[in-house]
Structures are given as structure tokens and as C-alpha cells.
């Protein structure tokens, strides 16, 4: 491969500073973890020194008595003090180790990004390309960790028999010896909570995380804690655990009534309308499934098979009591049921407020909200960086010629010397490659203000314009290898497969 | 502007350097605590001894001598003082180092992190890739892993490797089977086993790919020769270079074979061994791996670089243009109406732009397309069809070439196609 960066004049990567700002989180995360580690240490020091101060005071009091008993008691207390110091030392050891690991991350990352700049400084093209491959591996690991499913984790454990490394991204990083270049602990935690929410509908890991970060969430006025509690409430209702649901409502949700009035009142209403709402949601789902087919909906026919003969019956069904007088008077109850009216009064529209609370995507929405909060807390990109770079990379490379099935060059002519990509006849455009072509379709083209062609363009009578030197080299190689019978001064148009004389060359002047 | 990474490096070094020497303040806390614990243990021993002595004096009965009593009291006070002093010193030191540790982190932030130009990478993700393309995306990742990473996997027998790839990375045999043999040979090369690579090169040479394989075989000769220096005497190594290696190797200047052999032999003769053996050896093995990979991919018609790594390279190189655009867009509150083309020119190196020819019509300043293809004029200047229609008023009049005085008519123009070879 030829030069990867045309701006390389042995002066380092021209846009190193701006590229580094995209990788700021590589350093801010270990920094925030160092801060958290120190904060814990500070609290611990404060607690322990206060405790030890009291113990020392006791020892002093005992010794000051001057009696043998006092001294013996002081000895016992001194022993306890030593034990305390021992525990303190162990805890400190953990903190020092943690600090060491985080500092190691910073050191390795500094070296990694410096390596990129140094490769440019040295003008070492192979190392530059190697570095980009390493960075691609890093992005792949990040993608694999973030998008690992429970099923995938199980398969990895089955293969490796190692429960500690069940994420393919972590395994990949280990294999590439890049463990310190990514904050796997942070990403795995997000993945664990996320998969618990979406895969198992388990709120416990999320609730635990919320407890640890209550202050931060409150500071941001994040609705996450409310949404998580709300989801718990809905789950209790769906299991028809009314006692549990009411308890949850009283203990967890009512505290949010100021900020989430509508949702809390809706939650209260759900206690009454739950059964109908579940039916309605199932019914709506059925309608969605049948969408496209002709669907004659009768609102007086429910999934439960209940058919209301008149509105009084319907009222009794929903409210379990006789309809009020004014209700009976206002509507001619003797008339057979009017489907539209029933719908208006009892079903879809009236229940809409409640059925929206039972949205089937609520777990996904909660997961999205959690990931937003989690990633913003550590200043980690919300979107997969791999996708961001792919999107930019494809757009920057995509030409109007890409994704077209223009007549290609006969593979028999793929005989030019390898190693130099410019000599390759087979087009290896990444945008047109098998996997990128479908996702490139919707991405914008690159904007060009100057033509990017080749030296010495010559047109053959076929209308195709080639680089004359390469065309001659191709002819020479084909003749030498005996693939095509060509006389001297003859060339072949590798697309139309027509032989021409070099005298047919028309020099072109594309500006 | 100096690079933020240098600031991080300086901040990191400063964090590690404390007045009393190297290490962090937390480490210092630990050292002080260990010292304090030792002091406490010593004092405990003293106190114990003191109690035993007092007890033995008391058990002897009778009055304790006043001077002895004074001595005991003095010792007790001494132990107590020492205990208090040790604690005070430790407490002061721990708190001091904890405070300094905090100050160190603040400094790390001010000197290092604040030097970063804050930018949220999500802000440049304007053209989102739809979730429905996840399968293709995974295919690209799987193909990249198959191309570059098979030799790093612990399982290397074909069946085991296929199963491992399927289970861990969800890579199907269709995607990885072309790369399996390459990965196994690279694994062997990494683990100083050259036989598989040698055999492969030998077989391919027998299959008429002599030119291609020559380079690899010569590189393998060099690596073998280098390994011999560890186990064989100098004359044997010289013998190997002169007898075993085909003479053609020395005459081929492109291979640098003579230079490499001369380097090894000179080192051996002058120093009796090769200085920086490991480093030099790894350089030769890496060169061997690089050549093997290129030759393997070339012979099996596999891409030399994975499309994913090229796209990522393009993404990294173009990121600053996207950043600049995002900044301008947010500060100037401007938008871009054309959604199917980027609003800025991204300057990529030729290695990433040589795949397709790009012809910009000099009249309309637009890239030519299938709908608006390039046309050659009578003077062999090239313009786009739309420009041609405009200049010739849909072919009704003759017109002057925009670049030279030659007059053209539509009949003298010709549709052309630029082909990148």
C-alpha cells in the first residue's frame, strides 16, 4: 500500500490534536476513576483515623492509671489498634493497586497515541498502517463489548470455560494485547445492566447503579430513577400483584408527583383499568399484526369475547355498578350498542392514556435512557465510535462511480506485478466491497472540487481513457506471459478486449 | 499548539514524582502505614515486656524499690509517649499525602486534561447507519478479524479454530475459511516454527508462482540463519550462508538479501554474536510475516487490507473536516441543503482515493456521473454532458471549447470513460 497520508512531511500527524480530542475519554475515564478511588480513600482515612484516635485515647487513659490492670487493658487495646491498622493497610493496598492499574492505563494510552504521531514523524508507512489497524481493532473491541448479548456470552463461556471473560470484546482485546487501551470495566458494566434490562427484564442491576449514583442523577434532574421505579410498578401490575404495586406506588412513585404528575396519576388509574388495558394493548397489537389486511373492527367485540348488548351492560362491565341516572338519560340505552360510542366512552380513546403507559418498548426506552445517562457520566460517546468512523470514512471515500456495476476488467488480465495497489486491476474499493456496499447506499457522496485521475491519460478508439504507461505495461506483461497474442506497439483495452495499436492513442486533456 | 498528549505525559510524570522520591502519594500512605504498624508492634512488645517485669517484681513480694518503681514509670511514660508520637506522625503523614494526592489529581486535570479541545464525537455523527445494516456491519468486522487476528487465537487446529471463531466471534466458515491456513502459518511464524511457511512457499513455487514466492523463501533463509547463530558456531553459520542459499538470492538487488546476510555475518565475526538479537530477530520475523501475508493474499485473491481498516483510516483522516464543519455549523447556525453530498472537500491521501477516477467537469464544477457522463471535445478537452448541452444549446450550434480556441460541434464530441488500472 502506498502512502497513507499525503500531508506527511515528517512533521507528525497534522491533525493529531483534533484527533486526540475525539479520544479525550481515554484519559478522562481513568482520571474520574482515580478521583473516585481517592474520594473513597479520603472517607476511609477520615473514618479510620477518628476511630483510632478514640482507641489511642483509651490506651492513654488506661496507661495513665499506672496500675498493672490498666496496662494490661492498654495492651489489649493496643492489639486491637494493630488489628485496625492491619485492616487499614489491606484496604489501602487495594486502593494503591487500583491507582496503579489506572495509572498504567494512562501510561499505555499515552504511549499508544504517541506511537501514531511518532510513526508519522518517522515517515514509517508500514507502521502507520499497522497503527490504523490496531485502532480499528480497538473500535471493534468497543463495538463487541457494547453489543454483546446474553446468548453470545453463554456461547463464549461454553467455548472458553472461563466465566470471568464472557464478553467477546474483552477476549479480543486480550488476544490483541490491548487490555489497557479501553476501559472495559466501564463498558462491561453498561452492557451488564443493559442486557439485564432488555434480555431478562431485570431491574436489579440498574437499581443498584442508581443507588450508587443517586447524587449525580439528582443533580442532573434525570428521570431515570423515576422511570426505573415506574417500570417496576408496571411489572408488578402485569403480574397482577396489586399489593406490591400499591406499595411501590406509595413508597417509590409518589415522591415524584411534583415532576411527573401525569405519569403518577396515570399509574394510579392503571390500578383500576389494568385488566382492560392489557386487553386493549393485546387487541392493538393484533390490529398492528393484521395491518395491511382488510380489518373490520367492531369495538363492541373484545378479545375476551365480551359482546355488549347495550351501553348499560357495558357500563356495568367496566365499573361493576349500575350506570348513573343522568348517564342513562343522556344516552338512549334502549338502542342497540353503538360501536363508536362505546369506543369513545370506554375503550381505545379513554384508555389511551393508560395503554401508552404499557408500551411494549418501555424496556428498550428505559435501556436507552440508562445508556444515555451512563455514557454521559463518563463522557463516553453514545453512538458506537466504530459506526461513527465508518459513516465518516465511507462518505469521504464514496465517489459517483461507487456502487455501479460498470463492465469490469477480465480477471485473466490481472497479471500486473503485485504489491503496488496502483497496479492492481481488480478494484478493491472498500465502499463497493460486499459488506459496505449496502450500507453505503444511503450515505452521502464525497465532495470533490478537483479531478482525481492519472498521469498521461490516453483515449483508445473504444472511448475508454487509461493511463498510457500502465496500459503499455499491461500489454507487455500479457505478451510475456502469453495470455494474449500482441505484437510490439500493440495494446489491449482490458474492458472491451479489443487490440489497438499505440498509434491509436489520443492524448486527452482533462483539466 | 503542542499536542495534548505531551501535556498528559508531563502531568502523568508530575503525578508520579513526589518530594520524597518516586511513586504516588497513595503509595507513600501505604509505606507510612506499614512503618506505623511496625512501630506499634515494637511498642506492643515493649509494653508486654514492661508488664511482665512489673508483674514479676510484684510477684516476688515485698515492697518495690523506689528507683525501680521510678524506672518502670519512666518506661511506661516513654512507651506512651512513643505511641502518641508515632500515631501523631502517621496521622499527620497520611492526611498530608491524601491531601497532596488530591492536589496532584487537580494538577493532572489542569496541566493535562484541560489541554484537550473538548469535542463530543457524537456531534459529527450526522449520517447515521441504520440498524437494519447490522448484519453487513458484523460481516465486515468478522472479515477483518479473519484477515488479521486468526494467529492470535489460542486454538489452531482447523476444526477447533473454526468452532472457536463461530462460538466466540460468530464468524461462519464461509467468511473465515480462506484465511484459516494463513492464520495457522502466521501463528507458527510467531512461535518460531518456520516449517509450515517453508512448505507452503515450496508448494506454491512448484505451482509456478516462482516470482512471488522467491522473496518469502529468501526471507525465511535469513531468519533460519539468524536462529542458527544461537546454536551453531560462527563457521557453520558462514557455511550455511555460502552453501545452502541459492546464489540468485545475492544477485537480486531488490531483495536486499546480500545486505541482510552481510549484517548478520559482520556482527558474528566482529562480536561473536548479534547485538540486540531479540530486536533484530523480531524485525526479520515481522518482515517475513508481512511478505508471507501479502503473497498469500495475492495468490488467493484476497484483499491485502481489510475494507474495514481502510474505511476506518479514511474516517480518522476525515474526522477533522467533520469536526470543523460541526463547529462552523453550530457557531454560524448554517445548514446544508444538499443531503446526498458532503458540504466540504475531504483531503484524503491517494492510497484511499485511487479506487475510482473522479472527473470534475471544468464548466459546471460537478463530478460526472452515469447520467451526466464526460464527453471529449474535438480538441480533446473533456467536459460533462450537461455542460456540452448548455454550450451547444442542445446540439444546435457550434461552440468554442472553454479552454482553447478550437470550435466544436456536437458531432465531433465523443463519450469517454476514465478507467483506473
TrEMBL record, chain A:
<comment type="similarity">
    <text>Belongs to the FYV10 family.</text>
</comment>
<keyword id="KW-0863">Zinc-finger</keyword>
<keyword id="KW-0862">Zinc</keyword>
<feature type="zinc finger region" description="RING-Gid-type">
    <location>
        <begin position="429"/>
        <end position="496"/>
    </location>
</feature>
<keyword id="KW-0479">Metal-binding</keyword>
<dbReference type="GO" id="GO:0008270">
    <property type="term" value="F:zinc ion binding"/>
</dbReference>
<protein>
    <recommendedName>
        <fullName>Protein fyv10</fullName>
    </recommendedName>
</protein>
<keyword id="KW-0963">Cytoplasm</keyword>
<dbReference type="GO" id="GO:0043161">
    <property type="term" value="P:proteasome-mediated ubiquitin-dependent protein catabolic process"/>
</dbReference>
<dbReference type="InterPro" id="IPR024964">
    <property type="entry name" value="CTLH/CRA"/>
</dbReference>
<dbReference type="GO" id="GO:0034657">
    <property type="term" value="C:GID complex"/>
</dbReference>
<dbReference type="InterPro" id="IPR044063">
    <property type="entry name" value="ZF_RING_GID"/>
</dbReference>
<feature type="domain" description="RING-Gid-type">
    <location>
        <begin position="429"/>
        <end position="496"/>
    </location>
</feature>
<dbReference type="Pfam" id="PF10607">
    <property type="entry name" value="CTLH"/>
</dbReference>
<dbReference type="GO" id="GO:0061630">
    <property type="term" value="F:ubiquitin protein ligase activity"/>
</dbReference>
<feature type="domain" description="CTLH">
    <location>
        <begin position="200"/>
        <end position="244"/>
    </location>
</feature>
<dbReference type="GO" id="GO:0005634">
    <property type="term" value="C:nucleus"/>
</dbReference>
<dbReference type="GO" id="GO:0005737">
    <property type="term" value="C:cytoplasm"/>
</dbReference>
<dbReference type="InterPro" id="IPR045098">
    <property type="entry name" value="Fyv10_fam"/>
</dbReference>
<dbReference type="InterPro" id="IPR006595">
    <property type="entry name" value="CTLH_C"/>
</dbReference>
UniProtKB/TrEMBL annotation, chain B:
<dbReference type="InterPro" id="IPR045098">
    <property type="entry name" value="Fyv10_fam"/>
</dbReference>
<feature type="zinc finger region" description="RING-Gid-type">
    <location>
        <begin position="361"/>
        <end position="404"/>
    </location>
</feature>
<dbReference type="InterPro" id="IPR024964">
    <property type="entry name" value="CTLH/CRA"/>
</dbReference>
<dbReference type="GO" id="GO:0008270">
    <property type="term" value="F:zinc ion binding"/>
</dbReference>
<keyword id="KW-0963">Cytoplasm</keyword>
<keyword id="KW-0479">Metal-binding</keyword>
<dbReference type="GO" id="GO:0034657">
    <property type="term" value="C:GID complex"/>
</dbReference>
<keyword id="KW-0863">Zinc-finger</keyword>
<feature type="domain" description="RING-Gid-type">
    <location>
        <begin position="361"/>
        <end position="404"/>
    </location>
</feature>
<keyword id="KW-0862">Zinc</keyword>
<comment type="similarity">
    <text>Belongs to the RMD5/GID2 family.</text>
</comment>
<dbReference type="GO" id="GO:0061630">
    <property type="term" value="F:ubiquitin protein ligase activity"/>
</dbReference>
<dbReference type="InterPro" id="IPR013083">
    <property type="entry name" value="Znf_RING/FYVE/PHD"/>
</dbReference>
<dbReference type="InterPro" id="IPR044063">
    <property type="entry name" value="ZF_RING_GID"/>
</dbReference>
<protein>
    <recommendedName>
        <fullName>GID complex catalytic subunit 2</fullName>
    </recommendedName>
</protein>
<dbReference type="Pfam" id="PF10607">
    <property type="entry name" value="CTLH"/>
</dbReference>
<dbReference type="GO" id="GO:0043161">
    <property type="term" value="P:proteasome-mediated ubiquitin-dependent protein catabolic process"/>
</dbReference>
<dbReference type="InterPro" id="IPR037683">
    <property type="entry name" value="Rmd5_dRing"/>
</dbReference>
<dbReference type="GO" id="GO:0005634">
    <property type="term" value="C:nucleus"/>
</dbReference>
<dbReference type="GO" id="GO:0005737">
    <property type="term" value="C:cytoplasm"/>
</dbReference>
